[in-house]
Design a protein that fits this description.
mainly alpha; two-stranded antiparallel ribbon; globular
């Protein structure tokens, strides 16, 4: 286990250094080509000052984790372990969808990219291909593992296939919603990937490659935080948030425990539910709202319920802390799966 931990630490260091170095050159370049983010007019008014901040900064941590996969893949590939390559390619495919969306927004100079239908079709297609691939190579089974209870439900193949596609698309878009405040999606996601790295450590050498990918993403995100922490010098954009969502869903499926997203992704789920509740109640009540603004982080930002207006740094600390707590709870819920 000590040797495995050393490898994970090395993956973290490589990704951090690469991300920090890439950001040093990428952020000024994005600023020079005027790759500035358009801010939603219906968002908090003080966010309008962020207009023009470079977007597509997710390339920074994508470069970090890709460097880890490239530099550490040879040993795994010789042993026939393609797990982290599959997850990387899957995440990159979602990052590419996000890049197309960001590019369309920049071209049109407004906060409208691909249409909802275009994004949904692309996301479903990528998810279906990924699930089919992992099933074909035997990485996953149609036995739905239930964390904390240590039981498995045997599901019909078609139903499990459809369920996993839903999990992927829902997770990707939930992570995307969380990216609304400087560093928020970054801070929320770091404990999630620490969780996956820790699980790989206790589950054994079989999961080393997935652990390396996870540790690499932690390093990449920490390196990205240098530029993304409030006041942000760069936003991750849909390029980064869709990549992150793909990585969360991809790892949960590759570890064959998709239900763990309910606990490790509790804040992603909260963000989505707040949005759904807000829209649904607004329509049913003909204009009334449950939250001052959705998703939930904007509600807190605007002083919802208590009157306290949370600053972006306070929101970062709150979401990161809650995410870390649920990552710890989730770890105890699955660490004994293989009797370890």
């Amino acid at each position: 286990m000590i040797e495995m931990v050393e490898k994970l630490i090395l993956a973290f260091i490589i990704a951090f250094l690469v991300a920090a170095a890439v950001g040093k050159f990428l952020v000024p370049w994005l600023r020079r080509i005027k790759a500035g983010q358009a801010i939603k007019e219906n968002g908090p008014t003080w966010h309008m000052s962020k207009a023009g901040t470079p977007t597509m900064g997710g390339i920074i941590f994508i470069a970090g984790v890709t460097a880890v996969c490239v530099t550490t893949s040879f040993c795994g590939l010789r042993q026939g372990d393609f797990g982290y390559i599959y997850v990387l390619l899957f995440s990159l495919a979602y990052g590419a969808i996000g890049f197309l969306d960001d590019y369309e927004k920049l071209k049109k100079k407004q906060n409208l990219g691909l249409t909802a239908k275009q994004k949904l079709l692309l996301q479903v297609a990528v998810a279906a291909l990924f699930v089919y691939l992992l099933r074909s190579v035997g990485m996953i089974t149609p036995n739905l593992y239930v964390p904390f209870f240590g039981i498995e439900w045997i599901m019909p193949e078609w139903l499990y296939f459809a369920f996993l596609i839903f999990v992927v698309v829902a997770t990707v878009n939930a992570v995307n919603l969380t990216d609304g405040v400087d560093g928020l999606a970054t801070g929320t996601s770091i404990p999630v990937f620490v969780f996956f790295a820790a699980v790989a450590t206790v589950w054994g050498e079989k999961y080393l490659s997935l652990g390396l990918f996870s540790a690499g993403l932690v390093g990449g995100l920490v390196g990205f935080l240098i530029y993304n922490f409030n006041p942000a010098k760069v936003f991750m954009g849909d390029t980064g948030s869709l990549f992150l969502g793909g990585a969360v869903a991809g790892l949960a499926i590759a570890f064959n425990m998709p239900l763990i997203i309910i606990t490790i992704g509790i804040l992603y789920i909260l963000e989505v539910l707040s949005d759904v509740i807000q829209v649904g109640y607004f329509k049913l009540s003909h204009g009334k709202r449950v939250f001052k603004m959705a998703p939930f982080h904007h509600h807190l930002e605007m002083g919802g319920w208590t009157g306290k207006k949370w600053t972006e740094k306070e929101l970062f600390a709150l979401f990161t802390g809650i995410s870390a707590l649920f990552a710890l709870i989730s770890f105890f819920g699955v660490s004994g799966r293989f009797g370890v």
